[in-house]
Design brief:
three-stranded antiparallel beta sheet, 4 helices, elongated
Length: 118
Amino acid sequence: MSTQDARERLELLQGTLDLLILRTLIFGSQHGQGIARAIQETSEKELLVEHGALYPALQRLEERGWISAKWGVSSNNRKARFYSLTAAGRKQLVKETNKWKRLSGAIARILGSEPAES
């Protein structure tokens, strides 16, 4: 757990967790805890994915055919489900990444604009 105060931690916007999971899996299959840890580490501990959000998201992505899952053994010798990106998931990742870049660019333009003089 980071020493960062929980009130300062960034909240994930609706729909961004799916994108972050798909992006994390582009590097290879991973179990749920590994996905959560990768998101936290890559975000420099700004984002913390709670189990209550992660596992429903993984189930939703699997139902949509964007990821697949199979049982395996984790590095600490425990049985775990490992998730992998499917071809449909790769296509969705491209779509979602483009949408997110457009959205974040639009928000950056608004936040970066100078206030109008009265």
